[in-house]
Design brief:
Blueprint (H helix, E strand, L loop, with lengths): L9 E5 L6 H11 L3 E6 L7 H5 L7 E5 L12 E4 L8 H8 L4 E2 L1 H8 L3 E6 L4 H12 L5 E5 L17 E5 L2 H7 L8 E4 L13 H13 L6 E5 L3 H4 L8 E5 L8 E4 L2 E4 L4 E5 L8 H16 L4 H8 L10 E6 L2 E5 L6 H11 L3 E5 L9 H10 E6 L3 H10 L7 E3 L3 H11 L5 E4 L12 H13 L2
Parallel strand pairs: 1-2, 1-4, 2-3, 4-5, 6-8, 6-9, 7-8, 9-10, 10-11, 16-20, 17-18, 17-20, 18-19
Antiparallel strand pairs: 12-13, 13-14, 15-16
């Protein structure tokens, strides 16, 4: 497909959304002359911020608050937002009428001349993708896009054959890519834990969706896999290209941690003393090993790697230090939307912390989270939601009783601060989805930072 072929195409964009992906897809298609119908089940009042960004664009019809069958018939193609489930009856209407269903990523792969580095996993994919970008940017024309909050269509016109695009890829995006038979040139898988089981039928389907990142690889493709995760390690089976493992526990052919140093390769090239790595926590050492493996494969010099590792402190909302107030330390980990991510935060920042958690359940288990709270938290401040109820039930089987239930994030911050002792940390690490109280987890994180900064 060529960009010029988008002119006068009759296209339905399904899911405008509030995170920017739908908006940017609409802007891209409008720029190249497509005739657009944008439909979303949310009402205009819920999409005000997104709609504001569409002002001034021509050839756009809006259908909000509901979907209509006729908008999925007699179209050149549909572009679905990753948040739209594959079993949507409206997508079935399109399929039955022979209308192709695209995503921003499928369009990107059809139009992009660049090489791609895809990063997926349950935890750490944003940090790993961002660190890979930082490690490569001095030596390559490199761009960061995907599930990290930026549609790759935005950068399409900046790309050439020598460009690199680092793509953070969610299970939903990878599931949507399967019909197109596309995998990145280099694929990185950080780890696998149960997540999004409100969207996927079961954990097995979730794993298969993630495995799509490798499914259509070629002989010249590269896989960078976490040796310490048995599920990810098994992804190497039947992979036609070259596999590199990373590890925090043993020597492998990629980057690994041993004797408090980061090494690379079977000859054990020493890269950096792990104490000089700015990112802290066992989980982040794994992310660093993944990113360094990619950097070495792309011929980045050791000094450039060490300089980046000694300065890269992470990305917003991932165990982000926000502020100290009268000897109390606040951390924002709003992107911990599953129990395993919150467990990692507690293990790094505990013990004796005040944890703000809770929200909407994704059909996940909370027993391990509860046991970690017992060991690492002094007080749990619990936001409302279905996940909160499951966490309370799990905690009833333990000795932990220091639970303060609140109705709003403002009340949570106030309560936590009143209970905190000097030298303690207050952590927002919900272990759950956000959409009962917030637009999304980023809205939750921004509100938390505002509340903390107003203390």
């Amino acid at each position: 497909m060529q960009l010029a072929q988008l002119k006068n195409k009759d296209v339905t964009v399904m899911g405008l959304g509030s995170l920017g992906g739908g908006v940017n897809t609409v802007k891209f298609l409008a720029k190249y002359g497509a005739k657009l119908l944008v439909t979303d089940i949310k009402k205009a009042s819920d999409l005000e911020e997104s709609l504001q960004q569409l002002k001034g664009l021509r050839n756009i019809e809006l259908v909000l608050g509901h979907h209509r069958n006729e908008d999925f018939i007699d179209k050149d193609f549909i572009v679905k937002n990753p948040g739209v489930p594959q079993n949507s009856p409206y997508l079935r209407v399109a399929f039955e009428h022979g209308v192709p269903i695209e995503t921003d990523l499928s369009l990107f792969f059809k139009l992009s001349p660049a090489r791609s580095i895809g990063v997926t996993g349950t935890k750490g994919k944003s940090t790993t993708a961002s660190l890979i970008y930082e490690l490569l940017k001095k030596n390559y024309s490199v761009f960061l896009a995907g599930n990290i909050g930026k549609t790759p269509l935005d950068i399409l016109t900046k790309l050439g054959a020598n460009s690199l695009v680092v793509l953070e890829l969610s299970s939903w995006q990878l599931q949507d890519l399967e019909p197109f038979g596309v995998s990145p040139d280099t694929s990185v898988v950080t780890n696998m834990y149960p997540d999004h089981l409100n969207r996927h039928l079961n954990y097995a389907e979730y794993v298969q969706a993630k495995k799509n990142i490798l499914r259509f690889a070629r002989k010249d493709s590269i896989a960078v896999l976490n040796y310490d995760d048995a599920t990810v390690r098994d992804f190497a089976q039947d992979f036609p290209g070259k596999v590199y493992f990373f590890s925090t526990s043993r020597p492998v052919n990629g980057a690994f941690i041993a004797k408090d140093h980061l090494f690379f390769g079977e000859e054990g090239e020493q890269i950096i003393d792990s104490s000089r790595i700015t990112l802290k926590g066992e989980h982040n050492l794994s992310n660093v090993a993944a990113a360094v493996t990619v950097a070495k494969l792309y011929k980045i010099k050791p000094k450039e790697i060490t300089d980046t590792l000694a300065s890269f402190s992470g990305i917003p909302f991932r165990q982000e230090f926000v502020r100290e107030v009268n000897g109390v330390f606040f951390y924002n980990d709003t992107t911990a939307t599953n129990p395993h991510a919150s467990i990692a935060a507690l293990r790094r920042l505990g013990p004796s912390v005040i944890l703000i958690a809770g929200g909407v359940d994704k059909n996940l288990e909370y027993a391990d989270f509860a046991r970690t709270i017992v060991r690492q938290a002094r007080v749990l401040v619990l936001l409302p939601g279905s996940a909160s109820e499951k966490l309370k039930q799990a905690l009833k089987k333990t000795s932990f009783t220091a639970i303060k239930e609140v109705q709003t994030l403002a009340e949570a911050v106030k309560t936590a601060y009143q209970l905190a002792h000097e030298g303690e940390s207050i952590i927002l690490s919900p272990g759950a989805a956000s959409f009962n109280l917030f637009k999304n987890e980023f809205d939750r994180g921004e509100q938390f930072n505002q509340l903390v900064n107003s203390l």
